[in-house]
Amino acid sequence: MAKEVKLLGFWPSPFAIKPKIALHLKSVDYEYIEETLQSKSDLLLKTNPVYKKIPVLLHHNKPICESLNIDEYIDEAFPSTPSILPAEPYDRAIQRFWAAYIDEWFPTFREVALAQSEEVRAAAIEKVKEGLSLLEDAFVKCSKGKPFFSGDNIGYLDIALGSYLGWLYVYEKLSNINALNKEETPSLLTWAERFSAADAVKDYIPEVDKLMEFAKIIMPRFKAAASN
Amino acid sequence: MAKEVKLLGFWPSPFAIKPKIALHLKSVDYEYIEETLQSKSDLLLKTNPVYKKIPVLLHHNKPICESLNIDEYIDEAFPSTPSILPAEPYDRAIQRFWAAYIDEWFPTFREVALAQSEEVRAAAIEKVKEGLSLLEDAFVKCSKGKPFFSGDNIGYLDIALGSYLGWLYVYEKLSNINALNKEETPSLLTWAERFSAADAVKDYIPEVDKLMEFAKIIMPRFKAAASN
């Protein structure tokens, strides 16, 4: 029998990792449909005609697009515990703010990797560091001494940042930078280890070696696109 | 006595109009603090250090930033009727999707106004029209024959699009285009009239003439920024 929930994803994509973790946390059984880099499936084009991008969640064949939007939907449509968003409106607003910030900020890692001059590279590293410093601060404030942004358990903002960790490690290697370290981001450093080892997460963050292989294919494309 | 809710805004900003309408709908009494174009206040810099932009909502002095995030917060923190977001998770996800789309798409109107060649102008008009066509379609699907995106009453997606109406009319004049019309966007055209006349809205959408005066000041700045 066809499953009532389907997810269209692509294994290296941090955007697809977000709903995978959310569905795992909610113990939702689903069919995973892997897209390819070569061509977009008819199902993807039909279910996300606006952006034509994964991830798409299908629930009773009704599509939901955009990864953070999908995670909120999963939280609301499957009200079983645990909650993904915090209970308090203010905490929810703060997590939504930082989750959106992360999606805007993370591409600065790519700018570092693609920089064609020392000047551009230095400016991009500055933006990377600024974001890390803000997020270190946000972690301290949100977690209130507990292990995760959301407190005792992984939640919305943990997923929003944690889904990028594989690529963060790849960019550290590609660009020879030390993004997470004991001196500047001590809380994020231990949070990242804790997050990556969690049961709800460890099967979904791709191995760095495998992502590095993929990066060798994709980075030249990004480079060509950036110089157009 | 100081009011427990404060809003930092700037009168021509569609982003500041969003929380104004949401607060009106929820009958929340608040202090409005007008920022200026000349310099950013210390309060703004302190309460939105990441983006340094209005609107900022202060609730018991705790800041919430980003206009759509603020509207969700208002809905959750003041659970009095009416609700701003729909009740059903799927409807909520669809409204969130289009609200984010609108923020991404609306600047294409500015591209039309600033276009330096017929070719650039035609391409920008194409993007404007594509968005309008998608939103006309979204209106038909979301409203299900009722007056607003949210049904019988103004809700989240109505606010998200409606807050741009003043600028939409300004760009129609500036660029000599007919964005909303009976042939291509019949539903949006009547929705826009209905929305602008609503009690919760009519005091917050600036007059077109006043916005045109402001546009004469701001457009040359946008032009200079675009050519840098």
UniProtKB/TrEMBL annotation, chains A, B:
Q: What class of enzyme is it?
A: transferase
Show the SUPFAM superfamilies listed in the entry. GST C-terminal domain-like, Thioredoxin-like
Q: Where is the GST N-terminal domain?
A: 3-82
- Localization of this protein: Cytoplasm, Cytosol
- Where does this chain mainly localize? cytoplasm
The catalytic activity, as recorded, is: RX + glutathione = an S-substituted glutathione + a halide anion + H(+)
**GO CC annotations?**
cytosol
Q: What does this protein do?
A: Is involved in the conjugation of reduced glutathione to a wide number of exogenous and endogenous hydrophobic electrophiles.
This protein's name? Glutathione S-transferase
UniProt lineage: Eukaryota, Viridiplantae, Streptophyta, Embryophyta, Tracheophyta
**Gene name of the encoded protein:** LOC110698052
